Amino acid sequence: MNNAPTSLAATSDPAVWDRVLALHARVERELANALQRRHGIGLSEYRALENLAASPDSELRMQELADKIGLGQSSVTRLVERLKGAGYAFKDLCPSDKRGVYAVITDEGRSRYAAARATYAEVLSGALNSHGSDPALAATVAALRSARPA
Length: 150
What we know:
Layout: H1 6-10, H2 13-39, H3 43-54, E1 59-61, H4 62-69, H5 73-86, E2 89-93, E3 101-105, H6 107-132, H7 138-146
Antiparallel strand pairs: 1-3, 2-3
């Protein structure tokens, strides 16, 4: 049995982390539902398109893409296959290293990302506003928003 005062227990690292995870799960669910419903893409697909669109040559090595969106190598391979099937990306071999495989965004993928970007921003802001009014998550939302770089 924990005899620590409630205020200390509520501010412990595990308690803070639990609130971050709860907020993350709720916001991710809202984002995923909106992107699927409005644009026919999942959250991972959106994030892959976002990273590919932002890359200087509109391409990333598969491992770099996996690292950027937090997926394993096999998961990102399946993700890029789905994007390829939808016409949003294709795979290309590195000219200097035939073992290196790139994911490359297509014009159609760039258009899908551009259309979905406004939905993502709108739903993200709405979700943070909504969860920011929940007393259990208000301080977490406020801390995240105040952590923005200058």
